[in-house]
């Protein structure tokens, strides 16, 4: 098993990673990635996870009974407002 | 700072109603189905005049998206139902404040996010993981995260496993991951919603992703071991 943490270049790259990813920079061009297979794999994984997560949650209907609850709550609120 | 007070601080910015209107770069994610813009405008006008049937129509148009949004962020069916109800009650109460500076769907989206964030604030202790995230002595150090395994994930991630991995995230990680990677809010918007710095948002999202990766790699490793035992 290889340890990224033992490689100071990986450590330095990892410490900058959150900022680089969040900045919208073209991270694929980062010099460290040209020579580090492990960090390339890490980035590929993070992209796969993000893409998979976007497709994970289906759009779904609430239970039919929910509208009845909302109607009742609105009616109660309206009654309070009229007082 | 205690877990509770930190969480409270972090979520405070989400709670002002002004942030619903003032948030920049709205992301229209609540579609209107087959309802045209002019029909929606007519429904909106009727709702503002107190037409109950029009509000039922508005509910019908937006219920799926509001409910799904609540579910994604809150993470449970029960909470999603309660939050959907609360969101529509607030929509009913505040619809007269909608100034049409953005699409109604965007306004509803923002309002719903705020309802969910307020709910998470009330839960308070559920978000104490935010402190854990900020603790440099916690087990989220890069050495442990990055050195876990030298194999990459396979391209295809099993939905169920990923869902479990996301569910397994501490509440604070999960919140920022869903807001950014699923809902599409950028770091500036998240910082505004959660009243935290942009750097904090970036850092926490990054750690959430790393934690997910570690979960998935461990899962994959266990599956490989099980397979080896079977053979």
List the helices and strands and how they pair.
The complex is a heterodimer of chains A (83) and B (231).
Chain A lengths: L7 H16 L7 H5 L1 H18 L10 H18 L1
Chain B lengths: L2 H10 L5 H5 L14 H12 L3 H23 L2 H18 L9 H20 L5 H6 L7 H5 L12 H10 L2 H12 L4 H8 L3 H33 L1
What does this structure look like?
- The complex is a heterodimer of chains A (83) and B (231).
- Chain A has 83 residues and is mostly helical.
- Chain A contains four helices and no strands.
- In chain B, 70% of the residues lie in helices and 0% in strands.
- Chain B has helices spanning 3-12, 18-22, 37-48, 52-74, 77-94, 104-123, 129-134, 142-146, 159-168, 171-182, 187-194, 198-230.
Supply the key terms:
heterodimer; A: 83 residues; mainly alpha; elongated; B: 231 residues; Arc Repressor Mutant, subunit A; 70% helix; disordered N terminus
Short description:
Chain A is mostly helical. Chain A has four helices and no strands.
